[in-house]
Write a structure and sequence with these properties.
aromatic amino acid biosynthesis; about 30% helix; cytoplasm; four-stranded mixed sheet; about 425 residues; globular; Enolpyruvate_Tfrase_sf; 12 helices; amino-acid biosynthesis; alpha/beta; binds shikimate-3-phosphate
Length: about 425
């Protein structure tokens, strides 16, 4: 249980930990490359440590010295059959991306994880991978993990994905690295493109046009130096806190602002939020900037359509922020939120209601009528890190005390979250 209460203004400078999506991919691609990949700014969160442990179990030597991680790659055909099952913990990215790679190896493997991941849909990767020739089975038979994969030769496909999901796209593209012929994935709208950007740095022949990404099979990948920018999904809690807590001004240093991730910045600006971008840097592969966030009076907005995949993980904290905005905020086209670490539509509606907010759960989102004062409450995080962090932020502007059950789950993506938040409180 974590206890939070109303705070004074937030002031100062903060550096959020490395991007979770990019950290996972750097370990995975480094493991398949020839040579040593050096990763700086790696996120030392439980999810990314699950990825490291899976590749170590397949014979990859990985030196994790804190901020820097060295991955001594074994080449595309160098992975070994692990002893026992591979445990992906709470990490959907680990399970779905690794499945694409494992579908093409010359060994069999079982993938499992915690209670939450065993409820998340895996059919979305099983379908396209099976069409490529993969032998992949849900052991409980319900389309969920544990998954059993027997590696096989694969054939390239052009997959029209029904969901805008970077995990599905990446899983298929990684299988495509090993396939016979080109593989392409077309999505209904563009999801985060870290795989496309980073595989290029490792020497893969990969290109994107609109919402289609194509890859040709690779003979080898080559080690790269990867500098992981700060995670905009972690920065989101400080953006929201800075905007809603009166008198606040926060400088968030070195945040990844890849356009396929930065939808929150556009939405905050539409809501009247004062966010300035300083020190923009195109970077090698991923653009970054410092974000200067100043308290603002916000107004409600509509969030729908193609922007949704670019802020999908930030919607819980955006919903909380909307409670402090004038007028109504409507979130639509976001039914993917139901299959995240928790059902984030239901869990947000339940917990915001407990704090006195006027919220309505809809089939594909939420409607929030802002402007009503919130009060502290007992919050059930459902062991979902983004829910816990969202309510720590909401608590800063709510009367009385908020108790977050399972609040320790922030270790999935941001182990020092409460300490960092506390360091800004005046
Ligand atoms: C991720 C993709 C998104 C996101 C998740 C990380 C990734 O999931 O919600 O936190 O690293 O590819 P989906 O692919 O299910 O949308």
């Amino acid at each position: 249980m974590v206890e939070c209460r109303k705070s004074g203004s937030l002031k100062g400078e903060i550096q959020v930990p490395g991007d979770k999506s990019i950290s996972h991919r750097a370990v995975m691609f480094g493991s398949l490359a020839k040579g040593t990949t050096r990763i700086t700014g790696f996120l030392q969160g439980a999810d990314c440590l699950s990825t490291i442990s899976c590749f170590e179990k397949m014979g990859v030597s990985i030196e994790n010295t804190g901020d820097t991680v060295l991955v001594h790659g074994r080449g595309m055909r160098g992975l070994e059959k692990p002893e026992g099952v591979l445990d992906c913990g709470n990490s959907g990215t680990t399970m779905r991306l690794i499945s694409g790679i494992l579908s093409a190896q010359d060994f069999d493997v079982t993938l499992t994880g915690d209670a939450s991941i065993q409820k998340r849909p895996m059919k979305r990767i099983m379908d396209p991978l099976s069409r490529m020739g993969a032998d992949i089975e849900s052991l409980p038979g319900n389309g969920c993990a544990p998954l059993y994969i027997q590696g096989r030769p694969l054939t390239g496909i052009h997959y029209a994905s029904p969901v805008a999901s970077a995990q599905v796209k990446s899983s298929v593209l990684l299988a495509g690295l090993y396939a016979d012929g080109e593989t392409a994935v077309t999505e209904p709208s563009l999801s985060r493109d870290h795989t496309e950007r980073m595989l290029g740095l490792f020497g893969a022949d990969i290109a994107s046009e609109g919402t289609t990404a194509r890859i040709t099979p690779a003979r080898e990948l080559f080690a790269a130096d990867i500098q992981v920018p700060g995670d905009i999904s972690s920065a989101a809690y400080f953006i929201a806190a800075g905007l809603i807590v009166p008198g606040s001004q926060i400088l968030i240093k070195n945040v990844g602002i890849n356009p396929t991730r930065a939808g929150i910045l556009e939405v905050c600006r539409k809501m009247g939020g004062d966010i300035r971008m300083l020190n923009r840097n195109e970077g090698r592969g991923e653009p970054t900037a410092d974000l200067l966030v100043t308290h603002s009076s916000l107004k409600g907005t509509v969030i729908e359509g193609d922007i949704i995949p670019t802020l999908i993980d930030e919607l819980p904290v955006i919903a909380a922020m909307a409670c402090f905005a004038e007028g109504e905020t409507i979130i639509r086209d976001a039914s993917e939120l139901k299959v995240k670490e928790s059902n984030r539509i239901a869990v947000m509606a339940q917990n915001l209601t407990a704090m006195g907010a006027q919220v309505q759960e809809t089939d594909d989102g939420l409607r929030i009528l802002g402007g009503r004062p919130l009060h502290g409450a007992v919050i059930d995080s459902h062991d979902d890190h983004r829910i816990a962090m969202t309510f720590a932020v909401a608590a800063l502007c709510s009367q009385g005390e908020t108790k977050i059950q399972g609040g320790e789950c922030v270790n999935i993506s941001y182990p020092a979250f409460y300490k960092d938040l506390g360091s800004l409180i005046q």
